[in-house]
UniProtKB/TrEMBL annotation, chains A, B, C, D:
It catalyses: hydrogencarbonate + H(+) = CO2 + H2O. Keywords: Lyase, Metal-binding, Zinc. This is Carbonic anhydrase. Zn(2+) binds at C47, D49, H108, C111. Reversible hydration of carbon dioxide.
Length: 216, 216, 216, 216
């Protein structure tokens, strides 16, 4: 027995509409997915932010992307300490079990998590520094990124920290032995992307210039 | 400098197609979302599984759902221990900062995480019991659910455990003081849903029968 | 020993460009495709016409579509006579071995094969009626379609015959027992589409109106 | 009236994206192609395999290649018997009507059709030997190629048969009088290419060494 109640009617109505159209038009494919299991070609790590519509941006059909979403699309460093690490579990499952070919870290502009991290690290958000703040402790993962941008002109720090949220995650991914090995053996490729919500554009990390360039 | 490389061209092509259609047709709304920030009406906690297309099932537009996705849509118990808890951070941000009205835990059939948990708890997956298994330690969250279904006929245990993945998460959500208070004050409603991938149907938890019933 | 010579340099140059970009950016996926084999979700039967760019229209990545292309996207009736039937072999392989979920017959406007069939059936192309004309004999498959449009005003017959090239193929597909069974069991869905080359639009067969309607 | 249903929505979405970008940016060219008809400079005979992306490998724009795709990129011998020969019809149309300058037979590694032919000819696939097997009867075209490789060490036979699928087709092409004449008069050049899916490389037949050499 718990507190859960029925779905609001507008969601029920949309679900019936989805089932009568997208599902029925594609039901053969859905049954195949259920019987054969998923074989996604890529894992995407994105923010929970409601403005980041991963499958829409990339025209992905059901079954194409294995998607983990957390605050600020962060990946913590490898820490096999027996504790619960939801992000590390998702990466482990995607790389070792599903053997995805691509792992995309998808950041975005106007990220509340990044803004909170900036406020916390610059001493303007004492509440986030409290031990009991889950958001604060989660954003600690991005502190090394803050250190790299703290010297920039203030007006440039937030955008730079949004880029760092992608770069720090990419760096931490390589601290996982199974990720490092899969990349070294050519079984996995990593990608770092930043989505500009207002402009609808994408930038991606280019390791030749060691920076972000527009996706063209 | 890191290992990340450019996106595959088929994703670049689809992104350009998205920008020229969905984005441009809706750019006023995207601009608004960027300037005013997000105001999602619901948080959805779903599985990373590529076959669970949250926004499609519920016809959600960009900006509607704050979405956290992890292995088996699990929520751990409240543990303000100063460690990194990505799921707890997402729930805290959704409830305390975004003040969402609905929190939906969306489970699904054919869940690899649930099947792994069943194998582990029934002694058939020693590798998942190792301290270094991120998936194994993450699925420990569902062990209390396994205890409840272990006495059922074997052929019914997996489906029952899929239901437990939703119920255990709902129960753990109520161990968070800010969730319990928001529910008590009528500011937040919880919902437990199971999506059948092959049939395209939804079941939801009904607290009057203390079980799952079809969404009609 | 035969007459074959080296590829023209412009094709060699483009191949090197493709390998240095699209291939290398996606090489993990290509290796996976080679090792695991193909698992396309759809078969497309299209015309050989150089103006029909199947993968581009549908943003299909390598590995997504099993594609058979012949003159006028025709499927002959089921004829297990021990002769060589390339189209029937492709359909058999897609449905029985690959078990694709969707089979799309993609016709197009301005089809030279359809125009030739119309000229032949209306008595204006004696050369195509000769036993030795491979194109003529191949277009015999569409003769039943011509009979249905012969009574229309002349200016409407060609477009109607382009539609028939899709419809006759769909009808012939259902004469194959394994296609009929797969459709009946819900393991395969058929789709009939006409692509307008000049307008860049698609029409699809709608069995509720028993005609073609714009894809919107 | 038939069984065909609407396209899955993810394909519809991608089509709209294609039309708003690739098509509209190039609509003058598409209009020209529709009004003036196609004038492709080459015909490509490739396999239906979803992993062979002909236009991508050669950077072909809409209108450049007249493409016939069948199982294992095979061309049967000249047989003007009044039966339906889809491949012969495509070759006849490309050489006599479109007067293409190049005819490329594009084979590939990991070909299921070639593997099936090898199993059948070596007595390991009785089902393919049945009169009613369309794939088996189609692969009979490659039997002469199997005879040439049957004496090789087993581990080399498949790759050798993949080469034969190209060579036998080139040889059969020259049994067509109109092909032989076009080649003799210098109006048509033939090319034999093998695409390695895992490596992304091309080999082409070199008649000076009577074998395949890397395309450099």
């Amino acid at each position: 027995m718990n507190e859960a109640g029925p779905l609001p009617q507008y969601l029920v109505q949309r679900y019936h509409g989805w089932r009568a159209t997208a599902f029925l038009e594609n039901r053969v494919w859905y049954r195949r997915l259920a019987e054969d299991g998923q074989h996604p070609r890529a894992m995407v790590i994105a923010c929970c932010d409601s403005r980041v519509h991963v499958t829409s941006i990339f025209g992905a059909d059901t079954g194409e992307f294995f998607i983990h979403r957390n605050i600020a699309n962060l990946v913590p460093p490898y820490a096999p300490d027996g504790q619960q690490h939801g992000t590390s579990a998702a990466v482990e499952y995607a790389v070792n079990t599903l053997k995805v070919a691509h792992l995309v870290v998808l950041g975005h502009t106007n990220c509340g998590g990044v803004q909170g991290c900036h406020a916390m690290c610059s001493g303007h958000a004492p509440a986030l520094e409290e031990k009991t703040s889950f958001v604060g402790r989660w954003m600690d993962i991005l502190r090394p990124g803050y250190e790299r941008v703290a010297g920039l002109p203030p007006e440039r720090q937030i955008r730079a920290l949004e880029h760092q949220a992608v770069l720090v995650s990419l760096e931490n991914l390589l601290t996982f032995p199974f990720v490092k090995n899969a990349v070294a053996s050519g079984d996995l490729s990593l990608h770092g992307v930043l989505h500009d919500i207002a402009e609808g554009t994408l930038q991606q990390y280019d390791n030749q210039v060691d920076g972000f360039v527009p996706v063209v």
